[in-house]
Amino acid sequence: MTIKEKLAFGYGDLGLSISWTIVGFYFLFYLTDIAQVNAAWAGFAILIGKIWDAFSDPLFGTFSDKTTSRYGRRRPFILGAAIPYGITFIILWTVPNWSPWLKILYSTIAFLFHTTASTAYAVPYNSLTPELAETYDERTSLNAYRMFFSILGGLIAGAVPAFVIQAFADQRFGYSVMGTIFGIIVISSPLVVFLIIKEKAAQTETGGGFDRSALKDIAKNKPFLLAVSMYFFTWTGINVVSATIIYFATYVMEREAEIGFLIGILFVSSIVFLPLWVWISGKLEKKRAYQLGMIELVLCLLFIAFFGDKLNNFWLYFAVVVTGFGVSAAHVLPFSILPDAVEYDRLISGKRREGMYYGLTTFFQKLGTSLMLFVVGLTLNAVGYKPNVPQGPEVLLAIRLLFGGLPGLLFITGILLMMPYPIDRAFQKKMLEDGGSSE
Asked: What residue ranges are annotated as transmembrane (predicted)?
């Protein structure tokens, strides 16, 4: 791939990262503290949207696998989703000041529409990865470009919204303005991918559907089962951190005014460490690099969760920078591991079903995230959380555990799942040479 193509493909993740990061960081907090929706019901609204989001992923993946057009299999979906993706993002942040039940209904429906548009773009976009980059190291390189834009989007989405919102005396109006600004930006990513990335001739070949034979092939694809499980636990953990970080900074650390700055430091650090992870994965192999990065991330999160409020500014900022090292690994390495496992299916079945596989990947990840965010809402409600007031010791302990302990357990599970993962550089090369006979 040319540098231009890698940049264009990477830019495609900017809109995804912005929308997912803002929703992950701010949406639950927006519903509970701004729209004044009960925490348990706010978690329920997100749960419904995420469950539909999860189940729609394999559907859109299979649709794109079986699509034939002069634009290819993936690009028609990417173009068609562009404007709906941005518009539905805007309506998330305009919950009317209606009765409690109507606010819950509005939030649920708005989130359902947004997740549908997100899936229509994200799954075909993700499915391009193993098709565009065919070798083990080229995939790490391509995903480094992608993760540069992903983390850049996370930096923008994590830091800038707080400044936009705080610029208005009426925070409800501030959230609406923020949603409009970023909704417009979100539209640009799929448009750039559609205009610059061209699918190869092989990409016009349709794959098989999601049927009994496909299930049998998935069951035989042990590398994928391990990789998708690792991805599930990694990104469920990342999304739990994202959903609880504002509660942690606001109520445990009492640094609400610094939220944007702290998130900015985290993502700048993550971007800086990206080239280092490409180098480390080349030396240690991808799975070892992943395990190293996630161990570091677990230790950092636990330290900040239980000691962060006792640190002065210098040591807190230093701890956040070091945490960015692990966050960077969580972004680039799972995405570079998955294409190798997906490719293994083509070599054992002879079919091109990247869309189905990536749809299943995001299905499991989103299903796990939806359940965990529901647990977060239920937990906050159960321990007596009340918005916009000082919290009691039980609530503060729950927030610490939700921010550090729960994600730590999820990351450790991902580390263990990678221990028997078989694909390394030599394994992938042999797969290509012998047509998939490596076991």
From this structure: 7-29, 35-55, 76-95, 101-123, 144-169, 175-197, 224-253, 259-280, 292-308, 314-335, 356-377, 397-421
Q: Which domains does the chain have, with CATH numbers?
A: 3-434 (1.20.1250.20)
Give the 3-state secondary structure of residue 373.
Answer: helix
Quickly count: other Cβ atoms within 10 Å of residue 384's Cβ.
11
Q: What does each of the 439 residues of the chain score in pLDDT, given as a tens digit?
A: 788 888 998 899 999 889 988 987 888 889 988 888 888 888 888 888 878 877 787 778 777 777 777 787 888 888 988 999 999 999 999 988 888 889 889 998 999 999 899 888 988 888 787 777 767 677 777 877 887 888 788 778 877 898 899 889 898 999 999 999 999 999 999 999 999 988 765 444 445 555 567 778 777 888 888 988 998 899 889 888 888 888 899 899 988 888 878 888 888 898 889 889 888 988 888 889 999 999 999 999 999 999 998 999 899 999 999 999 999 999 888 878 887 877 777 777 667 677 677 777 777 777 777 777 778 888 988 898 888 888 899 999 999 999 999 999 999 999 999 999 988 777 777 766 655 444 4
Q: Is 352 left (phi over 0), alpha (psi -120 to 50) or beta?
A: beta
The predicted model scores a pTM of: 0.69
